[in-house]
TrEMBL record:
<keyword id="KW-0573">Peptidoglycan synthesis</keyword>
<dbReference type="InterPro" id="IPR016167">
    <property type="entry name" value="FAD-bd_PCMH_sub1"/>
</dbReference>
<dbReference type="InterPro" id="IPR036635">
    <property type="entry name" value="MurB_C_sf"/>
</dbReference>
<dbReference type="Pfam" id="PF01565">
    <property type="entry name" value="FAD_binding_4"/>
</dbReference>
<dbReference type="InterPro" id="IPR006094">
    <property type="entry name" value="Oxid_FAD_bind_N"/>
</dbReference>
<keyword id="KW-0963">Cytoplasm</keyword>
<keyword id="KW-0961">Cell wall biogenesis/degradation</keyword>
<protein>
    <recommendedName>
        <fullName>UDP-N-acetylenolpyruvoylglucosamine reductase</fullName>
        <ecNumber>1.3.1.98</ecNumber>
    </recommendedName>
</protein>
<dbReference type="InterPro" id="IPR016169">
    <property type="entry name" value="FAD-bd_PCMH_sub2"/>
</dbReference>
<feature type="active site">
    <location>
        <position position="331"/>
    </location>
</feature>
<dbReference type="Pfam" id="PF02873">
    <property type="entry name" value="MurB_C"/>
</dbReference>
<comment type="similarity">
    <text>Belongs to the MurB family.</text>
</comment>
<dbReference type="GO" id="GO:0071949">
    <property type="term" value="F:FAD binding"/>
</dbReference>
<comment type="function">
    <text>Cell wall formation.</text>
</comment>
<dbReference type="InterPro" id="IPR011601">
    <property type="entry name" value="MurB_C"/>
</dbReference>
<keyword id="KW-0274">FAD</keyword>
<dbReference type="GO" id="GO:0008360">
    <property type="term" value="P:regulation of cell shape"/>
</dbReference>
């Protein structure tokens, strides 16, 4: 059923007060296709968990809330499980389901907010793992025609925190299900960040996908604010990649600048370090600010306006560009 003038505060983890002129929640494919016919050429905004958007104004169009549910074992081989997950499933709940069933490969991605539908769109990643590493295919409805299409790994053109759905096909498809290829034999990844240190602190002797998941959850909870307590959308900025020669030049000027070597003579520089060095960490401005523990995270302490958070983000971008000559880019979708 279509609803009019619906408040969107419950549907975005920033907790921004905004409204939609029309709102429709769909639980099956037929309902989605009917809604698209009804919408005609009205502006569309598709919401999953609302954990990767910043609303800066009321939305004068149709908000479609993805509530497709279901997790299904499609097939298995000697080495893999092929699991189809409906796009409205909460990502972390799916990870817990995978762990309970000994489906390995997503344990390092524990506690990432959002839904399954947004996961391949963003190519979510953490602690040395990205979803593209376990991705098999997805299904998506074309907004213009209502037709269902299948996208294989190569079709998605995955990149760092992006895919074809954030570029050429942006706002042209609605992802309805994702099929992942998970492992029967775990390939433990504990070398990234503080995972091994945390496992040692936890006195884990028998390594498992559950113990890695528990370690990642502990790390994330110690560094990142809970959106239920402080409005936020997780990491607001992507970690930039720069040429190795440029990095070496910055290293000469700023000896403590960290960097992670990538292929093709590229270096990834932690955006959190850049933001902290420009003095933004922990800064507050009325009821918004930069988180005191993690400068990648912009926060709404209550009653903050999305437009002011956007302006703060752009000020941070300017500061980093001025000091280091590095262009940061938002990971969050600004609407």
């Amino acid at each position: 059923m279509f609803q009019q003038n619906i408040a969107l505060k419950p549907f975005n983890t920033f907790g921004i007060e905004a409204s939609a002129s029309q709102f429709f929640a769909f639980q099956d494919l037929d309902s989605l296709q009917l809604a698209l016919k009804h919408a005609a050429k009205a502006p569309l905004l598709v919401l999953g968990g609302g954990s990767n958007i910043l609303l800066t104004q009321d939305f004068d169009g149709l908000v479609l809330k993805n509530e497709l549910k279901g997790i299904k074992l499609l097939n298995e081989t000697n080495e893999h499980f092929f699991i189809e997950v409906q796009a409205g499933e909460t990502w972390h709940e799916f990870v817990l389901t995978a762990i309970a069933n000994n489906w390995a490969g997503v344990e390092n991605l524990s506690l990432i907010p959002g839904t399954m539908g947004a996961a391949p769109m963003q190519n979510i990643g953490a602690y040395g793992v990205e979803i593209e590493q376990v991705f098999d295919h997805l299904k998506a409805v074309e907004i213009a025609t209502g037709e269902l299409h299948e996208f294989k790994h190569s079709d998605c053109q995955f990149g760092y925190r992006e895919s074809v759905f954030k570029r050429e096909l942006k706002a042209k498809f609605i992802i309805t299900s994702v099929t992942l290829r998970l492992n029967k034999t775990p390939d433990f990844n504990t070398s990234y960040g503080a995972i091994q240190e945390t496992l040692d602190t936890m006195e884990v002797n028998d390594l498992s996908i559950k113990s890695i998941s528990d370690a990642v959850i502990n790390i994330r909870q110690s560094k990142l604010p809970d959106p239920k307590e402080i409005g936020n959308a997780g990491s607001f900025f992507k970690n930039p990649t720069i040429d190795k020669l440029d990095y070496e030049g910055l290293k000469a000027e700023f000896p403590s600048i960290p960097g992670y070597q990538l292929p093709d003579n590229k270096v990834k520089v932690p955006a959190a370090w850049l933001i902290e060095q420009t003095g933004w960490k922990g800064k507050t401005f009325d009821n918004i600010g930069v988180h005191k523990k993690q400068p990648l995270v912009l926060v709404n302490y209550g009653g903050g306006q999305g437009a002011k958070i956007r302006d703060l983000a752009f000020e941070i971008l300017d500061s980093v560009s001025t000091k280091f000559g590095i262009e940061l880019h938002p990971e969050v979708n600004i609407i």
